[in-house]
Design goal:
The chain is an all-alpha fold. The chain has 3 helices and no strands. Helix 2 (14-32) packs across helix 3. Residues 78-87 have a biased composition (Acidic residues).
Length: 87
């Protein structure tokens, strides 16, 4: 079974995380029993379960990028103001 990243796991809700842990446990058991056909189905369920957390992670990244762009713009604007006051 493939685990999702720590970043994605950190953005799962409590219910999603409980379900994720349960599915991973079942998937590991099925792999131990050489039931890879059924473990594949469980992995597909895990993949669907983590999609909302992946979207939250992407949105968080976009917010951080916007904040960085705003900060850099404010620095540029400050430099422009500083140059015009020196003249």
């Amino acid at each position: 079974m493939r685990h999702c990243s720590v970043q994605v796991r950190g953005l799962l809700t409590r219910d999603e995380l409980d379900r994720y842990n349960g599915l991973m446990e079942v998937g590991s058991y099925l792999e131990d029993q050489s039931r890879h056909d059924l473990a594949y189905t469980i992995q597909k369920e895990v993949d669907l379960l983590i999609l909302p957390a992946i979207k939250r992670l992407k949105e968080k990244s976009r917010d951080r990028d916007r904040a960085t762009a705003d900060y850099l713009k404010s620095l540029r604007d400050g430099e422009d103001d500083g140059e015009s006051s020196e003249e």
